[in-house]
Amino acid sequence: xxxxxxxxxxxxxxxxxxxxxxxxxxxxxxxxxxxxxxxxxxxxxxxxxxxxxxxxxxxxxxxxxxxxxxxxxxxxxxxxxxxxxxxxxxxxxxxxxxxxxxxxxxxxxxxxxxxxxxxxxxxxxxxxxxxxxxxxxxxxxxxxxxxxxxxxxxxxxxxxxxxxxxxxxxxxxxxxxxxxxxxxxxxxxxxxxxxxxxxxxxxxxxxxxxxxxxxxxxxxxxxxxxxxxxxxxxxxxxxxxxxxxxxxxxxxxxxxxxxxxxxxxxxxxxxxxxxxxxxxxxxxxxxxxxxxxxxxxxxxxxxxxxxxxxxxxxxxxxxxxxxxxxxxxxxxxxxxxxxxxxxxxxxxxxxxxxxxxxxxxxxxxxxxxxxxxxxxxxxxxxxxxxxxxxxxxxxxxxxxxxxxxxxxxxxxxxxxxxxxxxxxxxxxxxxxxxxxxxxxxxxxxxxxxxxxxxxxxxxxxxxxxxxxxxxxxxxxxxxxxxxxxxxxxxxxxxxxxxxxxxxxxxxxxxxxxxxxxxxxxxxxxxxxxxxxxxxxxxxxxxxxxxxxxxxxxxxxxxxxxxxxxxxxxxxxxxxxxxxxxxxxxxxxxxxxxxxxxxxxxxxxxxxxxxxxxxxxxxxxxxxxxxxxxxxxxxxxxxxxxxxxxxxxxxxxxxxxxxxxxxxxxxxxxxxxxxxxxxxxxxxxxxxxxxxxxxxxxxxxxxxxxxxxxxxxxxxxxxxxxxxxxxxxxxxxxxxxxxxxxxxxxxxxxxxxxxxxxxxxxxxxxxxxxxxxxxxxxxxxxxxxxxxxxxxxxxxxxxxxxxxxxxxxxxxxxxxxxxxxxxxxxxxxxxxxxxxxxxxxxxxxxxxxxxxxxxxxxxxxxxxxxxxxxxxxxxxxxxxxxxxxxxxxxxxxxxxxxxxxxxxxxxxxxxxxxxxxxxxxxxxxxxxxxxxxxxxxxxx
Length: 939
Hints:
This protein is α/β, with parallel strands linked by helices. The strands form six sheets. The chain has a six-stranded mixed β-sheet. Helix 7 (175-182) packs across helix 8 (197-207), helix 29 (720-729) crosses helix 35 (807-823) and helix 31 packs across helix 32 (762-776). The longest helix has 37 residues, at 844-880. The radius of gyration is 31 Å and the shape is globular. The protein starts with 6 loop residues before the first strand and ends in a 7-residue tail after the last strand.
């Protein structure tokens, strides 16, 4: 777009509001009014205004939930819940914030904000101006044209005609036609059943517009599509009215009143002080602006203002984020190294060309030794590709220190035991630096000692929010770091980080180190007051090195066996498809949910079918399992086919793709701060979701093999969550059963069904086992009935008998729910806080899910902590015993080792001893040990 035209910026206020509300923790100003959304909105708007200039600007808001569209279609947006009660009082304050910045607010009764945006865009561009709409809302893409663009507020990415075409498959002027056909479940726009975005785009490309398509509907060859278009033609026309923005809506304020102007410092300062936003006052340079007499603030305000800041608000005199230094010569690097050693603490971050730490090439390193004092050391930046001009000189790489020399200068600092290295997601950087990066180097750098801000946050706030650096920065520092996409571009225009201009690379990379250091300074002291210091120091931080070693070691996979499994699965899928077609009475695409739904509910007339909002029958696993339980063979066979298909694509083909040709092993990535319960998760490949008890799962485990001269040893905690249940609820009979190593499910069956121990049959044990595990997950009578294939009344009787026999369990469940309601979190048996989202929600469904999570979290979290305790103690125990076994995998309650054949007995004894002695419970811990040439045999 030309920059010499008048330029109107229209900010979609709703997007900012809800993004701010959900990104920040609860905050209140001195009088108790919630202001987290106000703080986030004010911060984002202030940040935006410093980076974007226009001749005119306005923020556009929705005035009310009901508009003219509800007169066209009563159910339009009717399914949307009311805004959270703590957000409602913030709407007016957000409008005050906008006015305090000197920016116009636009809203109009009976119209949506999108209509006003369309009307102003039309009017302004008609006068020869250009318009930027700050929003990623797909509905606004219909406005894109020569003088109108969108700007994604998160990615800071312009959205023009190519991006619209990529999203909808049509040009902006045809977006409305596509939306009318496809509908929109978010806004409850019905569309035409069975037609999605891709099909809608194809139809509009062929027929031009909706009316012409409907007029020619009888010519459509596909019968279902033809019938839908004919039967739902009027619904499509209504949908078009709903999605078409009213560009002729009245303008609530003249365009002349939207002229951009700087804010009045006094007015803005008063607003920020009234809300208690001290960090924003500092960031905007308004601390010294009196704005108003001191009497406008209550005498006790300074002591209370901290409530309005994010948790652990940054100090008022915090330095700015940048500018930072680019280090391109050895003398400057040595000076930084000495300063870091003198400081005693240095934040560290790496820039690479891949998210795969074991194969990533090091592009640069950033250091921070104090807030605002950071640098970037480029190591492998290359020239940008030329433009193809034969006369142009060959591009030259930017000046930088040779990689080997830079790493030699950094290694003493990074391995210095007297200098603490602070990282965010340290495991990744330690794996990158732990490999030889420079040609001719014998080994990598063993960075130590380290702190990890991601794990510090996770130790205190598991389940409360995410622990990515950007989110923590906004939450705790009130600062939004530079987005990666802003530096490298997106889509076809993205360049590798190694080709980013050094000025931009420095601003981005050094800021990461700066943010990491500031987060460490703010969060580390909280560990003690939050009673999470021991958890972090003794468990989470020690897990970094343990998992790093496990990931680098990997596990061997037999590629030939994997190929055999894949061929077997393919043949079985073909056989199942033939059976499915016979049961259906005709061939169809088994992988198509739409076609399967038509077979089950239109042709076979099976009961229980429900159509989705798009008009197609639902055929998810729950639907098929319900039909299978009723004795229908076709859905049961489809479930088996789906399982084979998923296993084949995820594990057979997925493992083959992840197999490292250098060592014939797969190296999974353990995520340390994802789950809400403290459990690890596994990706690339995911080795934690392989079915345990199915024939297919056993086949896949056979492909994981030991190296020559070794065996695999599997050590699995026995019924650890039930042991924790007996411990927490202090159930005497269950404790007695575990102490005597009795079969816990048989004992439960005898207790609740009043049977003699020798009279417990397989069915009674099965029922007892189902309820034993179901109780931990808060299973209802309805859920138990579905699992056991019995009536809800009988299931309720079993649950009542269970709680009558074990009243301590019910009491413990109620205590956990009450603890979550009062504190917002529950504690594991070892003191880790597990935050429970939605526990006080007015939505019964959401609150019920939260209550079930509150019941289950201490058991899952306790189990996770027990096995982590074993993992951090295991390497030293094996080393002290003179054993060469290597820990390879952790899968829920199981550890897998590769052991030299001659050390199997000794290793088994050490592993069992460590696992069974890491925690003192009211019941004994038991670890079951197995071994074999492959993972399946080890079970």
